[in-house]
Amino acid sequence: MFVKKRAIVLNAVYHFFVSIFGLFMLYPIIWMFFASFKNNHEIFSLTASLIPKTFRFENYVNGWNGFGTLTFGHFIENSLIVSIISTIGAVASSALVAYGLARIKFKGKKFWFAVMLITMMLPYQVLMVPQFVLFHRLGWVNTYLPIIVPQFLGQPFFIFLMIQFIQGIPAELDQSAKIDGCNRFSIFFRIILPLMRPAIITSTIFSFCWRWDDFFAALLYLNQPRLYTVPLALRMFSDPAGSSDWGAMMAMGTISLLPLIMVFIFFQKYLVEGIATTGLKG
């Protein structure tokens, strides 16, 4: 009886602190949501007050109208194009590379695996200048190519994640498939790839979120407003030399979170399963 009561108390304390930390992490989003219904004066004069005095929906109308002939829907469309194509390229190429490093024996395998790990540790600032010079000489600046094409060359984090998952799949499945006449590609596409679903979905969620939120690469390579993605479009609401429409920025910031929230809600089960089965725990 005492043990049961102790378990109930510990469980209640655990959920209490988890709820507090969860609320602490969500508070900036909640604050942004309610700030999207305030005017500029109320946003900064009553920052501690969460609920607006009057709910002003014109921030959503003004924000969605965008700039000139470009509505905010145009920027969302640009972000979807970049995020979806980049995610397909990153996940597909990473799965192929991970299968090769996890299952196929070849000369220099350990060396290339170490190179892959080193590239994962390099900060983007180290690669930024040489990549920009390369893409500028190729004439890719002011297009989506510098953002999308590198994703088709494999992403170290996803490769590492998928290697961990593939190594957990019994090698006997490969041997059985060989006996049945399958070659390497048949084994990958018919045996390994279907079993990798949790790792693939986890990589897809991470890749989509990272590309959707990517501000720096878009800032570096895109100069024309018609090509801007959502992060760059949100910056346009802020004008340090003039007046900024903070209400519209908060409103469109709230809308820009909807695709990420929907992806997380629909694929939460696979995200948890993928992280658990690949050993990438916090």
TrEMBL record:
Subcellular location field: Cell membrane
Domain spans labelled ABC transmembrane type-1: 76-267
A Pfam entry, by short name: BPD_transp_1
Membrane topology: Multi-pass membrane protein
SUPFAM superfamilies registered for this protein in UniProt: MetI-like
GO cellular component: plasma membrane
Parts of the chain that traverse the membrane: 12-34, 80-99, 111-132, 144-166, 187-208, 246-267
InterPro entries in alphabetical order: MetI-like, MetI-like_sf
One GO BP annotation of this record: transmembrane transport
Keywords per UniProt: Cell membrane, Membrane, Transmembrane, Transmembrane helix, Transport
Top-rank lineage group of the source organism: Bacteria
Family classification: Belongs to the binding-protein-dependent transport system permease family.
Name of the featured protein: Binding-protein-dependent transport systems inner membrane component
Lineage: Bacteria, Bacillati, Bacillota, Clostridia, Eubacteriales
